[in-house]
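Q&A log
Question type: sequence-to-structure
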Amino acid sequence: MKKLIAIFLLSILSCSALFAQKALVRKGDYYYKMFAYAKAIPYYEKALKKDSTIQDAVFRLANSYRLINNRERAEHWFSKAVKLPKCESIYKYYYAQMLMNTGKYAQAKVWMENFAVESPNDGRGQLFMRAFDTYKSFFADSGDYEITRLDINTADSDFGTAMYNDGIVFSSNRPRTELVERTHTWTEKPFLALYHARGKENSFRAPEILDNSLQTKYNDGPVCFNKKGDEIYITRNNIDGSRVHKSKDKVVKLKIYSAKNNGGTWGKLTPFQYNSNEYTCAHPALSPDGKLLYFASDMPGGLGGMDIYVCEKKGNGWTTPVNMGDTVNTKGNEVFPVVMEDGTLYFSSDAHPGIGGLDIF
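Response status: OK
Response body:
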C-alpha cells in the first residue's frame, strides 16, 4: 500500500512539473509572438533548466538572443539548436553567422556548408562559402585605417551618425530622465532618441537632446540632413500623435518623415509619400545635391528582407522608388545607406560575403 501511495505521489509531482514547464513555455511563446524577446527569454531559460529537451523553446530562445543582439548567448543556444532533430536549416545559417562574429571561421564554414546543402535555392550559403576561402583578404588594408572610440559612447546603442551644425546627430537608447519611463518591448531598453554633440574629429562635447519638436516618446532616428542643414529626414515608429498604427500582422512599422528649418525653428514633420502601415521605410540618405533619396524598406517586390531603394526629387515630391537590384540587394538585409560627395554608396548588409553580422560595403 505504501508503495502504491509513493507511486501515486510521484505521478502527481511529475504531472505538476510538466504542467509548470508547459506554462513557462506558453508564457515565453506569448511574448515571443508579441516581439517582446527580452521578456520571452527568462521564461524559456527557466523551462529549459527543468527540461533541456523542449526543442521549440531552444530554437526560440536562441533566436530571441539573436534579435536583441546578444551574440554570445545566441551562439551558445544556436550550438544546441543545430543538433536537435527538428532543426530548420535557417538556424544553421544563424549559428554560422554567430561563429563568424567571434572569428571562429573554421566552425562557421561547417555550418554554413550545411545550410548551403539544405537550402540550395538560398544564395546566401553559396556566397558565404566562397567568402570563407578569401576572408583574410578583408583584413588586408586594416593597417591603413585607425578606429578611435569616441568618449560620447555609452554601453547602450549609439549609432546612425549624421553631420550637423558643427557636430554630429545620432540615435541612442541611453537612459534619460523622464517623468514616465518607457521601454521597447523588443529589448526592454529605452526607446531611441536623437542627440546632438558639438565637436569634430575625435573630440566632442557632452551630447544633448536634439530639438524636442522633432522627438516622440517612441523610437526616433536615424536621420539625415541636406547639405545646408535646413532640411531633415527622420526614421520613426508609425505613430500619429498618441495613436499607434499597426500592420495587419500587428507590427508597428517604421516610417520616414521630413521637416524644414525656417529661422532656427523646425516646421511640421511631413510623412514620406511612400510610407505604409504594412511595410517599413527607414534609414533615409540624401545625395549631396539633394536630388536623390536612398532608403531601406521591406516593401513588396524586394529581393529579401530589407532592400535599398532610391527615388528622385520631382517638384515637392519624389518619383516611384526603384529597387537598387541584386548588385546591392540580397535575400538578407541591406540597411543604413550613406552617399558620399563623389557619389559612392555605402551601406550595411548581413548577407553579402563578409566577416559576419552587419558589415559595411
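Response note: Residues 2-33 form the longest helix (32 residues).
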